[in-house]
Specification:
Elements lengths: L1 E3 L11 E3 L8 E10 L7 E10 L3 E4 L3 E7 L5 E8 L10 E6 L5 E7 L5 E8 L6 E11 L6 E11 L3 E3 L2 E7 L11 E8 L7 E6 L4 E9 L3 E8 L6 E11 L6 E10 L1
Parallel strand pairs: 6-12, 14-20
Antiparallel strand pairs: 1-2, 3-4, 5-7, 7-10, 8-11, 9-10, 11-12, 13-15, 15-18, 16-19, 17-18, 19-20
């Protein structure tokens, strides 16, 4: 946003004031502004603005937390929260912490040795099944200029199931294969787990036109899944998910992407 003198008498000076919304930018940044005038020798001029916006609350090392580990593994991260406001009239305090993913993480605030600094420990739920989840922590403080601060959180539980291939691509299916129950288009994959025994309890699809059959390769450890594709109508893509339901509580659901193009 800019405020400026619209009319400048010959031989006089004018001023331009630039204003930056500190809520929308942080840290060091560079912006450009273009000035247009009726001066035939200077119709267009460019001004470069350099600034450093200091936040009222410091969150170090960053306002993002990544928690990644296997099922049952203890994973935690620690961030330091402190005040960067020199005009705060009272000692800095964290008044409350909330999250929108309490089933996936736990957290606690600990006073640091230095006054006005706090440690926020964020821990992954070790019983979290295999998934990739996103959410936020909300840190409330006694600073009126930064009463609510958001920390982004990503939680990942790594799987032990091995699926080969991870995507079933049926390619282009000709019109002649439509409703051909005797000769469907087939693709297969193997799913295995070398650490824990499991069984396949069910297979479901997010889209019509697919059917699956399971054959054990090694009971409790490895299975072959054969998928038949029966196109229902032409001129469309059959892109969806196959969900393999297993007896393993660590990985009850295994997703496989399906791709088929019918012409």
């Amino acid at each position: 946003m800019a405020k400026y003198d619209k009319v400048i008498p010959p031989g006089q000076k004018g001023t331009i004031e630039f204003e930056i919304d500190g809520k929308r930018v942080r840290g060091r940044f560079t912006k450009g502004a273009t000035i247009y005038t009726n001066d035939p020798n200077h119709r267009k001029m460019t001004v470069t603005l350099n600034a450093h916006i200091k936040p009222y609350i410091l969150i170090e090392p960053a306002s993002k937390v990544f928690l990644k580990g296997s099922y049952g593994e203890q994973v935690e991260r620690e961030i330091i929260i402190s005040s960067n406001d020199e005009n705060l009239s009272e000692p800095f305090e964290i008044t409350k912490v909330e999250s929108d993913m309490d089933d996936k993480i736990t957290y606690k605030v600990i006073s640091a040795e230095e006054q006005g600094k706090f440690k926020l420990k964020v821990m992954k739920n070790p019983k979290l099944t295999v998934q990739n989840a996103f959410g936020s922590l909300f840190v409330y403080t006694n600073n009126d200029r930064a009463p609510r601060n958001v920390i982004q959180v990503q939680v990942t539980t790594k799987g032990e199931m091995v699926v080969r291939p991870s995507i079933l691509n049926f390619g282009f299916v000709p019109e002649a294969r439509k409703h051909n129950e005797e000769s469907p288009v087939q693709r297969s994959l193997t799913i295995s787990n070398s650490k824990h025994e499991f069984e396949i309890e069910d297979i479901t699809f997010s889209i019509e036109g697919y059917r699956a059959k399971v054959d054990p390769i090694e009971d409790g450890k490895s299975y072959r899944v054969t998928v038949d594709f029966f196109p229902q109508s032409g001129g469309r893509n059959y892109i969806g998910q196959m969900v393999i339901h297993t007896s393993d509580p660590r990985e009850p659901l295994v997703n496989v992407r399906l791709i088929a193009r019918f012409r």
